[in-house]
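writing this on my phone so excuse typos. first protein, seq and then structure
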Amino acid sequence: MPCVYFKVLDVGMRRNMDVFRVGLFLLIIGGVSAQVQLEPQNAAVLRGSKAHFNCSTTQSLSVMTWIVNGRLVLTILEMGVLNSTERFSARNLTTPGNYKWEFTISTVQRDDAGEVTCQVLGGDPRIATLSVQERGNVEIIGGNRTEIEGVQMELECQAIGWFPKPNVSWSINGLSMGNCNSSSIAQGNLFNSNCSLKLTAVKNSSVQCFVSVPALSTPESSTVFLTVESTKKATIRDQTVLISVTVAFSAAALLFLLIFGIIFCCKRRKRKKSTYHDEVRRAQSQSQNRMPANVRGRDNRGYITDGRDVRDTNGGIWHTNFNKQQMPYAINNFNEDDLRKHRHATIV
């Protein structure tokens, strides 16, 4: 009776009594070595996505185990799948003459990277490699550019937060410039890469920077547009800018002078008006100071200019001639001494 070598790859497998019983049974009754095939041999996926592996055998399946980095995560028997979880699952893809199961790792994490093993009872283990990668950001520093024709220029592409070291390449107007020798710096378990492109400004162009890792089916890219101006056009543009700046500065200066002139005129007018009133008050004060105290504030009620005598309401007689005006101060003691000359003054 031939013997079958039953290989146990993980101690945790012993905890599954169903698997152990089936293996023990096969050891007793013997069997034929099974042919096992695992695909893909190398898988690269992005963190957080799904990884798929297919394991098939030409013989009727009795026991199939899946091991990730030495950890038993799934067992498949003829009756179905054991210990399936949200992260580790399998589905039957068997066709006549080909017993095949698809093993899936959901929400792949960085610690899942390493060896993925499929073992069919009675066959040799088959091992595949899983690489868990990170997709970062890509940017061409400075954005769109405008340069004068013939100028030598340099563009820099930055790839931030990638794993493993990304491949960086350039394209001008859809024509690939090939991979560039980028410099990379490790930051934790991620990489930051820089790559420069030197070119001459010849014509308007679309420049692209591509960054990729094996897990990406399509590279990430950043695009800028290069506008090339002729020397004559650039000179006209510079002159236009200079004229615009000069006009704006002149207008601002003129507006400042206009506002300053208005404020100055208003202050001067206010000062003149105040000075006029002050002079009037000063003249009135001086006139009052020159008048005698005994006649200050008296009115010449008998002043007329036609030479007629006028009798006031109290019986007094006011006599006026052409060369002097006289007025009595009391009707009872009317005499020559009481006649005073009166000078009429008008202050403007």
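second protein below, same order as before
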Amino acid sequence: MCEVGTRPPLAAERGEPPGGATAAERCRDMGEQPIFTTRAHVFQIDPSTKKNWVPASKQAVTVSYFYDSTRNSYRIISVDGAKVIINSTITPNMTFTKTSQKFGQWADSRANTVFGLGFPSEQQLTKFAEKFQEVKEAAKLARDRSQEKIETSSNHSQESGRETPSSTRASSVNGTDDEKASHGGPAEAHLKSENDKLKIALAQSSSNVKKWEVELQTLRESNARLTTALQESAASIEHWKKQFSACKDENDQLRSKIEELEEQCSEIDKEKERNAQLSRRLQELETELQDKELELEELRKQGEVIPQLMSECESVSEQLQAAEKKNKDLEEKVRLLRTEVEESKHRQTNLKTELKNFLDVLDGKIDELHDFRQGLSKLGVDN
């Protein structure tokens, strides 16, 4: 299988003509094809707590399903720059779980971790989950087919093993009646059974050796591919190191220029600020000068009307004296009126007292008249 470990340099960066093989193209050349691709933020479970999520990528990266036709297997692969952050082989026992509207996760026992993906939308998460289920079913079907092939091969080996002992047993029965009579039946039957088991094991071992040879050849080819990819990655790393060094030098130069320009801009800004302050001060002084001129004009006008104001002031003083005199006369009249009012109140009090006494006398007379009337009424009744 193809290991997508580092990003190879672009054709233009290596000085090659366009059309150079990328990492995905090398995977396709080696029999591994991308069947679904999306973008998501990648997380892994914290190995110490097994609870918190640790970001595996600083930003959304490409996450792809790959199918390996040589091994009939499926993988989820994601690369962030030169780092492989997901390399998970899908097995029928895996389950993709949606934990929120935009987040899903699955556990990989081989990698001993749990991967989490954060998607920009719920629709992309649903598509990824559906594809995971499809790939899981395909992996299960591939495993079942592989087991059927192994069982069929094992059955063929067992049948061939059974035929060989039976023929041997037939020849033994036909030609060793004397031996059977002399040595006894149970021991010979046990030896024949052990012989049958050894022949079956030998047939299975031969079948397994062939499988192991095929597997070894596949591993050698994979090792050769990995070696080539590693060499290309090393060359790519050296190229990127040179590019990084050149960019760093250029960045340092640009940074020094930017600092110089910032210093110049700072001086210019300070000068502009000083000019603005001077302009504001000049405007303030002009405004103060205009105010002073207006005050001076007002003072001149007031100086012109001072004589008229003095004459008016004298007239007002005379009027004030006359008013004060009138006020004194009025105060004297008020005092006299108050005295009269007090005397009137005193007379009213005396009159009220006399009136009350008169009313009391009148009430007494009325009571006497009432008694007298009652006496007269009584006398008229008696007569």
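Residues 1-23, 163-184 have pLDDT under 50 and may be disordered. thats all i got for now
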